[in-house]
Amino acid sequence: MPRLTIADLQKIKDQHKAEFTLREGGYRAKVTVHMGTCGIAAGARGVMTALMDEISKANVTDVIVTTSGCAGLCAKEPLATVEIMNQPPVKYCDLNDEKIREIFKEHIMGGKPVEKYALVVGSETTY
Question: I need a surface site. Which of 31, 54, 97, 116 has the fewest CB within 10 A?
Answer without folding.
Answer: 116
